[in-house]
Amino acid sequence: MKLRRFIVVLLLLAAMVGVQIFLRATGQEFCLTQLTMALYYALVVIGLGLVMGYAGQVSLGHGGFFAIGGYTTAVLTTRDFSPFKDTAWVGLLKAAHVFVAKEDLFGAQVMVVTPWAAFLAAMALTAVVAVLIGYPALRLKGHYLAMATLGFGLIVYKILLGSTVTGAADGITSVPEWSLFGVLTVSGKTALRVQNYYIACGLVLAVLLLLQNLVHSRVGRALLAIHDRETAANAMGINTASYKLRAFVLSAILAAAAGVFFTHYTGGIGPSEASALKSVRYVALAAAGGMANLWGVAVISTLINYLSLRDWFGSYDNAVFGTMLIVIISIAPEGPLKPLGMAVRRVFFRLRPSGGKPHGAA
Amino acid sequence: MGSGDLILQYLLSGITKGSIYAIVAIGFNLIFSATGVLNFAQGEFVMLGGMIAVTLSFYVPLPVAITGAVILVALIGCLLEVLFFRRLRRHSIMHMVIITIGLSIVIQEIALHLWDEKVRSLPYFTGKEISSVAVFGATISPQVLWVLGTVAVVFVLLHAFLRYSLQGRAMRACSSNPEAAMLSGINIANLRTLSFGLSAGIGALAGCVISPITMTQYEMGGPLAIKGFAAAILGGLGNPMGAVAGGLLVGVLEAFSVSKLPAAYNDVTAFAVLLLVLFVRPQGLFGSPTGDGVREF
Amino acid sequence: MALLEVENVRRSFGGLVAVDKASFTVAEGQIKALIGPNGAGKTTLFNMVSGLLSTETGQIRFRDRRINGLRPYQIARAGIARTFQNPSLFLQMSVIENVMVGQHVRTRAGIAACCLRLPRQQREERAIRDAALKQLDFVGLAPLAEASAGSLTFGQRRMVELARALATDPALVLLDEPASGLNNKETGDLGALIQKMRGAGVTVLLVEHDMSLVMDISDDIVVLYQGTPIAQGPPSAIQNDPRVVAVYLGDDQHLS
Fold first, then answer.
1. How far apart (Å, rounded) are the C-alpha atoms in residues A306 and A30?
2. C-alpha atoms less than 13 angstroms from C-alpha of A86 in its C-beta half-sphere
3. Biggest alpha carbon–alpha carbon distance for chain A
4. Which chain A residue has its CA at the smallest distance from B268's CA?
5. Distance between CA atoms of B257 and B19, rounded to whole angstroms?
6. Which residue in the set B94, B110, B278 is minimally distant from A287, CB to CB?
7. Is C158 on the interface with A (CB under 8 A)?
8. What residues does A185 pair with on adjacent strands?
9. By the 8 A CB rule, do C99 and C164 touch?
10. What is the C-alpha separation between B136 and B129, in angstroms, rounded?
11. Nearest by CB to C52, which of A213, A231, A250?
């Protein structure tokens, strides 16, 4: 089991590095920009894979969480708080390095929140919203839960679209870059393109590893048990409501974190990130990737989103997306990677027939 | 115009919108009852109905164009069931729902490429754009009466069909207990096809009658499907009366929130009320708490 | 001292009274059987004890603590485990993972600890696996530990479900028709196993239709008829009780 995971991680790493080297060699490094964005979107889909594939719940509102994350950081890091600088709480927060003074585009002195503080605020806000929505919504089942989460996403979308603080239909632009630690900076600058690609890769890989650990633990078993037979899980001592909520909040936080990184990377965010279309797309990608197969979910969603972002299919983009969805789910409801992986393993074990058995078994 | 008249005006506009949501919700319910799946392509049937009727109306008289569109879309509905759902019985509900999402996207794109992104509309069935009728002191377009009349007739006919015809009764039996229905010799596969056809046809009819008011465009299906979904859930899945009540409620809420809130927020009220209702009554207003509407995927 | 006390419990569905005026106790270390014709309310009673159904009147106490009104998972945590009439294993998991779920109530690692594989969580995980293996061994299915739960026979599923219940370290196990669907040999093994469980300190309350099994292994029997206990006592007394005979032979006259 552990060896297998090690091989998968190695393969993914090789693929990530290989893609970058290939693109550099062929002079197409500009493609890394869309790949980086696709990786951030993949984070949302991976989180949904946890909720759908393990806890057995559906959320058509994750675009809303992505937007809450992105907009929180966009508003906090671009809005000038200097009019409030004499109030006590701002002074206090300033001492804690929450605020930073800088010059705006026109050379005026402004005071904005630092990206790290904005990130933490976004996470906290998302957690609160996710609990408030998830607590009542997760008592709903099936289509009712789908509608409730869809409704939540639409409310977020409409509020973003109608509020001046969030820039209404234009969204927010000129969000500053985010210097993570030392030389690592989340930024859309061309010079930092490769670095940012690896930041996104690292983030996705880290999240995958953490979630893999999670699903192979008592929490993961509890979630799967709920998915399979909620009554029996409850009778076995699993607080089903609490675990569903925790998985939901965790995935909401992942979506929001993706939104924060995405916003600093692209330098802005618009209301369409919260649209029903986006949320539906995330769910569809999670399903097409095989839901419980988080590796597959990550690969499929990165690939498909990348092709869309590169405008690979031109005006047929949606048509191709829809067709792929139908084909993948009709033919391989557990995701295309699983049958593929099985085939590979079959070949592998035919070469080494004793490979599958533990030591001393033969 | 007094404030009472104004309220009446909003109410009427809400009822008009609401009756469209209701008819989409009825379409959802029909397929849901027979298959357990919410068909997200329901809004696309409405769009296709309008589009095909507009095209046909260039060649044939309006009533023939509408009849043709309804029949054609109903056939498309049957075809989708046979092509995609009949062979996928073993897939989970969630997977089937996602396939309907895929279908909805593909149908939309086909419509975009078959027609274009232009807004079209059928002519007013009676009178012109500017003609109006006075109802209790409010003025409305005669087309609104066509919409309301059509929804009422569809509802009554469907009710009669489900209650009195052999096929309709089989359909109800199938929805409440598929296994027992199968054992008593009902051909479930054909019933499911029928439910898709009926649902598509009803959607197409709705698409025709609203076309003069709301116009028809390739993108109109998505938002309609969402509102219809909201109406079906609000009323309680699988309950046709609930679908009508849910649709009207969503429509009226929308109309009044337009009068009070900035336009950009127009859907917020309706969805906020929907969420509140669900949090208090997880099975919708008229749904049964143990009915098959509330089962897991 | 009584481990479980059921006192004047009632439950109805719509107009149908499923259980009424039900009172009995289960003493620590006992094997107690709940019998009665179909529809007597046995499973309803089980569901109330395990918290899946609420009670309308009366009280259920476990170790002198009132448990009706608690959620099922709280009751499991308190030390009551159960099996179901139709074995309800988690079919997406392997056999050992199913049993490991039973250990859930006795372990603590949270989301963060599990994500980060903290040493404490790793130790706990090993302990969970050991405990699960021990229970699988107890029911004789250790060789199938890594098999998929879906590949098991019906009888094996029952055994895995039993192991899963035992993995919660319960003081009391509720077995809902454990012998139904088993062949004679399997039923015999089950009887031995239940007695072995009691030997290991677990109290057993079972609902069962297989009378020879019930008479063989139980210390005490409650007969339920139309939701109400009509007789209680050791097997020998129950076998000769005219009311019980009447219930099973369908003779209503003896009942009054």
1. 12
2. 1
3. 77
4. A155
5. 17
6. B94
7. no
8. A179
9. yes
10. 20
11. A231
Angle (CA) B290-B292-B296 rounded to 5° is 95
State the nearest Cα–Cα gap between B281 and chain A, in angstroms.
9
Q: C-alpha angle with apex B280: B276 to B286, nearest 5 degrees?
A: 100
pTM for the complete prediction?
Answer: 0.88
Domain boundaries, given as residue ranges, for chain C: 1-79+170-256, 91-169
Give, in order, the Cα–Cα distances in Å from C169 to each of A82, A217, C15, C48, C164: 61, 19, 38, 20, 10
Q: How many CB atoms lie within 10 A of CB A40?
A: 26
The amino acid at residue B16 is T
From chain C, pick out residues whose CB is under 8 angstroms from the CB of A219: 109-111, 114
Evaluate whether A188 touches A33 at the Cβ level (below 8 Å). yes
Amino acid type, A316: Y
Q: Which one, of A22, A12, A18, A50, lies nearest residue A244 by Cα?
A: A50
What are the tens digits of pLDDT across the range B118-165?
888 888 888 776 667 777 667 777 888 888 888 889 888 888 888 888
Which position has the token pair 């919660």? C168
Q: Given phi > 0 = left and psi -120 to 50 = alpha, else beta, which region is C172? A: beta
Token pair belonging to B193: 């096809």
- Which site among B80, B82, B94, B249 would you substitute to test the A interface, given the most A Cβ atoms closer than 10 Å to its Cβ? B94
Which of C67, C73, C106, C125 to substitute to test the interface with A, most A CBs within 10 Å?
A: C73
Could you tell me if A228 lies within 8 Å of chain C, comparing CB atoms?
A: yes
Task: Compute how many other C-beta atoms are within 10 angstroms of the C-beta atom of residue C223.
Answer: 22
Taking the Cβ of residue A150 and every Cβ of chain B, the question of whether any pair is shorter than 8 Å is answered with yes
From A94's Cα to the closest Cα of chain B, the distance in A is 35
Average pLDDT over chain B reads 83
Number of CB pairs, chain A paired with chain B, less than 8 A apart: 142
A4-18, A93-107, A112-126, B253-267: which range is least confident on average? A93-107
Q: Hey, are the CB atoms on A322 and B106 less than 8 Å from each other?
A: yes
C-alpha closest to that of A256 among A138, A136, A119:
A119
C-alpha distance from residue B163 to each of B158, B166, B167, B194, C174 (Å): 8, 8, 9, 16, 46
Alpha-carbon gap, residue B146 to B206, rounded angstroms = 10
Nearest residue of C to residue A228, measured between CA atoms: C90
Q: For residue range B209-264, what is the model confidence (pLDDT) as tens digits? A: 988 888 888 888 888 888 888 898 888 887 778 888 899 999 988 888 877 777 77
- Does the distance separating the beta carbons of B99 and A146 come in below 8 Å? no
Cβ B294–A141 below 8 Å, yes or no? yes
Which residues neighbour B27 within 8 Å (Cβ) at sequence distance 6 or greater?
A: B39, B42, B45, B199, B200, B202, B203, B206, B228
Write the residue in A140, A318, A323 that is nearest to B282 by C-beta: A140
Whether residues A235 and C82 touch (CB distance < 8 A) is answered with yes
Determine the Cα–Cα distance for residues C33 and C198; give it in Å rounded to an integer: 13
DSSP string for B222-268: HHHHHHHHHHHHHH-TT-HHHHHHHHHHHHHHHHHHHHHS-GGGTTH
**Which of C52, C72, C115 minimises the CB distance to A210?**
C115
Give the C-alpha separation, C55 to C7, whole Å.
11
Q: Please indicate whether, in this complex, the C-beta atoms of B95 and A140 are within 8 angstroms of each other.
A: no
Domains of chain B: 15-291 (1.10.3470)
Sequence-separated (6 or more) residues with CB below 8 Å from residue A118: A72, A73, A76, A77, A260
Residue A358 has what pLDDT? 38
Window B:202-231, CB contacts with A under 8 Å = 222, 226, 229-230
- Contact partners for chain C, using 3 or more CB pairs closer than 8 A, are A
Which CATH superfamily, name and number, covers C1-79+170-256?
P-loop containing nucleotide triphosphate hydrolases (3.40.50.300)
